[in-house]
């Protein structure tokens, strides 16, 4: 098992990088869990979705963001994102930076 784990002050992320194990509708993906130190997951999810659409184009469908509870987000990063010039690690870094800044300012 290959895990990607990153932790900042306000957010930590854990992704299982063995995407061959995960399939949704015939598409392989990397599952990630974003854990927040503050209970604002609903607001963060909206910001993340907007940022992803701007970064990858409207209706891209390469990332699903789901709110688990007030302090946790589940994310499916489909392997198609790699064809758009990003590694999963790069994308997670960008998303973590966005979440960290948002939580700090909220």
Low-confidence stretches: none
The biggest beta sheet is recorded as: 6 strands, antiparallel
* Number of beta strands: 6
Secondary-structure content class: alpha+beta
- The number of helical runs is 2
* Beginning-to-end CA distance, first to last residue: 35 Å
Helix content estimate: 25-40%
Q: Return the string of H and E elements.
A: EEEEHEEH
Feature tags:
106 residues
Task: Give a short overview.
This protein has helices at 41-56, 88-105; strands spanning 3-7, 11-16, 23-24, 27-36, 63-69, 72-78. It has 106 residues and is α+β, with helices and mostly antiparallel strands.
What would you say this structure looks like, in words?
This protein is an alpha+beta fold. It is built from two helices and six strands; from the N terminus they run E-E-E-E-H-E-E-H. The chain has helices spanning 41-56, 88-105, and strands at residues 3-7, 11-16, 23-24, 27-36, 63-69, 72-78. Strands 1, 2, 3, 4, 5 and 6 form a six-stranded antiparallel beta sheet that branches. Helix 1 (41-56) packs across helix 2. The longest helix is centred in the last third of the chain and has 18 residues, at 88-105.
Summarize the SSE layout with pairings.
Layout: E1 3-7, E2 11-16, E3 23-24, E4 27-36, H1 41-56, E5 63-69, E6 72-78, H2 88-105
Antiparallel strand pairs: 1-2, 2-4, 3-4, 4-6, 5-6
